[in-house]
Design a protein that fits this description.
Immunoglobulin-like, 5 domains, 4-stranded mixed sheet, 7 helices, about 40% strand
Length: about 700
């Protein structure tokens, strides 16, 4: 296979792996892309629609967009192509200073699915920065007595690019007295040193001009230069020495401006001007140079601006101590910044509903929230909560995203609107809080039937009423809302005296007023029983019934009528036959005597006969009751044995007793019943019912009694 074919195969495999990687990460809710820095606005980053499996029309229908969290946005979603593009020109060195891998993050929300996807974009470096020296010209003072091989620190160049595009090498312009040596620092950086290759003679040359060139590894390579002026001075045999090679200090980010953070100290054994030590910063970033200030005489480092842990958690400085003879020493200063809980949690409502039906199932998503806290550690740990007693709960979805869902079924008739307050609190001491309010209106469902104000209704209506008179008004209320709460009334079907009920009364559909459609006659209809139905406007409609009783009140609207004698026809009156309404009574009539007439006599006789029969019936009934009472008294008295008569002289069957012997009695009666006597004569008695045992059983009739 040719070299071109192999390269094409490698590109195809790399493309396949990148597609598979993007698909795998999309399945786990995260997309990863890379783009070089300094690309113009609108440059292609990645095909989001393809990686998420979304069709282009679905981008608008589902509300797909980059989530705005109130910070600077470097990427945007192209609505027509579904591509992730750059929103502006990105400078990697400005965003990710001293960071080996520059990564930007954003979130893509699909509102139609209430789903959030994380997007990670790596900003790759290009060689857009040349190495540069902090000072274009540097002066070194070297004693003429300095021995050959001595080395002097030179200013380092700085290249904000990374990798091969960063600083790679130094060169020194040719000079017979000096040579260049490059040493590796603790962090892997290159440190140039000027070596003395030939003895100096101040009388021969008091100054030497050198050029130091720094190059990066880009293609093409970029370079930067610094001019070095070497001044030959008289002898100075002792260099300043720091008390420690590295100073480390940690300060809180809220330390006041103007505070002294650390003091470095170096000593020089020389005397006079050669023993006076001065301090200077030799290695410091542009950003740190605006935050810290070094006192050249005292060696104190003072804070010029407020620190921010979220911007940088540590700073590295290099301090140089030198004497008047250009001898020096260097020390490393590390200033660590500790976090203070100075950032409130930021709670953002990414997507939210404004209305929800009251029959929504438990677990329905109401809102999607995002929370973040720029603090670190416990100060950056955020807890979210809802007010107690609301029918909602919080669920964590992706990283710092939460969603508010219903915890139970809703009831609009109890609560029609909710203002749900979501609170976010960090773990600081004291904790900082923020909140957001979700306004949610509960939509009505027809789940309540109309309810009448009374269990039953009744009314009284005088007869001979006017047609269309108001009888009464029934009222029903519905706890629902809108059309579902609109109540209409109607009569249930029925008949009265063979006619439809609707021909007697009617009910107004909107107000429930019951009207009489005709004039009622008490002598024909004395009461009406009917049912009224109340029905709401839901779909399907719900209804309830109530009974209504209408009582017709009698009025004196009928004159008395003579039943007898009947009025004579007009023809009879004209002929002289028939009753004229006048009867004659003889002068000899007694007071209380009727007017003459056979019908009147028979009527009187019939009434008298019925009265006599009724009176006779009452007397007979009374006699029977007395007789029965007397019999009961006699039976009660005879239930025990007669005094003086042995029990063995009686025989009884079915409650009837008879004497077995005859007795003669002597009865004495006096006017006073308490002295009456009844005496039995024992000598005059005789057997009246001889006891004869059965042929097979010689036992006596009286059981336990001895016949003897």
């Amino acid at each position: 296979m040719s070299a071109a074919g192999r390269r094409w195969g490698r590109r195809q495999r790399a493309l396949l792996w990148s597609v598979l990687l993007a698909a795998w990460e999309a399945a786990w809710g995260q997309l990863r892309y890379s783009v070089p820095e300094e690309m113009p606005k609108g440059s292609f980053v990645g095909d989001v629609a393809k990686d998420l499996g979304l069709q282009l029309p679905a981008l608008r229908d589902r509300g797909v967009h980059i989530l705005d969290k109130g910070r600077r946005q470097y990427f945007a979603l192209h609505g027509k192509t579904g591509h992730l593009v750059t929103a502006e020109r990105i400078d990697r060195e400005q965003l990710c200073e001293r960071v080996p891998q520059c990564v930007l993050r954003c979130e893509l929300i699909v509102e139609g699915e209430m789903q959030v996807y994380g997007i990670v974009v790596e900003i790759t470096d290009i060689n857009d920065n040349a190495p540069s020296f902090r000072e274009a010209e540097t002066e070194l003072k070297i004693s003429e007595t300095t021995s050959i091989g001595s080395r002097f620190f030179l200013a380092e160049a700085h290249d904000p690019d990374s990798g091969r595009n960063s600083l790679q090498s130094y060169e020194l312009s040719g000079h017979e007295h000096f040579s260049l040596a490059v040493q590796a620092g603790p962090g892997g950086d290159q440190r140039p040193e000027l070596g003395l290759a030939k003895a100096l003679d101040r009388e021969e040359a008091a100054f030497h001009e050198l050029v130091l060139r720094a190059s990066d590894g880009g293609d093409p390579a970029l370079t930067g230069t610094a001019r070095i002026r070497v001044t030959v001075v008289d002898a100075n045999d002792n260099a300043p020495v720091f008390g420690q090679a590295e100073y480390t200090v940690r300060v809180p980010e809220d330390v006041p401006v103007g505070s002294t953070l650390v003091t470095v100290t170096a000593t020089d054994a020389d005397e006079g001007l050669n023993g006076q030590v001065k301090y200077s910063l030799k290695k410091i970033t542009d950003k740190a140079s605006h935050i810290f200030q070094l006192d050249v005489d005292m060696g104190t480092i003072i804070l010029l601006r407020s620190l921010d842990f979220e911007a940088a958690d540590s700073y590295e400085l290099e301090v140089q101590a030198h004497d008047a003879g250009a001898l020096f020493d260097r020390a490393k200063v590390v200033i660590g910044v500790t976090d203070v809980n100075d950032n409130d949690p930021v709670l953002t409502v990414s997507s939210a509903l404004t209305e929800i039906s009251e029959d929504s199932l438990s677990g329905t998503v109401v809102a999607l929230l995002h929370v973040q806290d720029r603090d670190s550690g416990a100060n950056g740990e955020v807890r979210c909560s809802l007010d107690a007693g609301v029918p909602f709960r919080l669920e964590k979805t992706f990283e710092d995203y939460f969603r508010v869902v219903t915890a139970r079924e809703l009831d609009r008739e109890q609560v029609s609107e909710y203002n749900v307050t979501v609170r976010a609190a960090d773990g600081g001491s004291p904790p900082l809080q923020s909140s957001a309010v979700l306004a949610l209106r509960v939509l009505d469902v027809n789940d309540n039937a109309p309810v009448f104000a009374q269990e039953r209704y009744s009314a009284r209506l005088a007869e001979n009423n006017a047609a269309g008179a108001l009888v009464l008004t029934v009222r029903a209320s519905d706890a629902d809302w809108g059309q579902n709460a609109r109540v209409r009334y109607r009569l249930s079907e029925g008949r009265v005296r063979g006619a439809p009920l609707s021909s007697y009364v009617s009910v107004q559909a909107e107000t429930g007023a019951l009207y009489a459609l005709r004039s009622f006659d008490y002598e024909q209809v004395r009461e009406l029983e009917l049912w009224v139905r109340a029905e709401d406007g839901g779909a399907p409609a719900l209804s309830s019934n109530v009974s209504v009783r209408l009582l017709i009140v009698d009025e004196n609207d009928n004159a008395p009528q003579v039943l007898y004698p009947p009025p004579a026809p007009a023809a009879s009156l004209s002929s002289g036959a028939g009753w004229s309404g006048v009867e004659l009574a003889p002068r000899s009539s007694e007071p209380g005597a009727l007017p003459a007439g056979s019908l009147t006599r028979w009527l009187v006789l019939a009434v008298a006969a019925v009265s006599c029969l009724f009176l006779a019936f009452l007397l007979l009934l009374l006699a029977l009751r007395l007789r029965r009472w007397r019999r009961e008294q006699l039976l009660a008295a005879s239930s025990g044995a007669l005094r003086g008569v042995p029990v063995s002289h009686f025989v009884g069957i079915d409650g009837v007793r008879a004497f077995l012997q005859s007795y003669s009695h002597e009865v004495s009666l006096t006017a006073d019943s308490r002295k009456s006597q009844l005496r039995f004569s024992g000598a005059s008695c005789c057997d009246t019912l001889p006891a004869r045992p059965l042929p097979d059983e010689p036992a006596p009739l009286l059981g336990d009694e001895n016949p003897a």
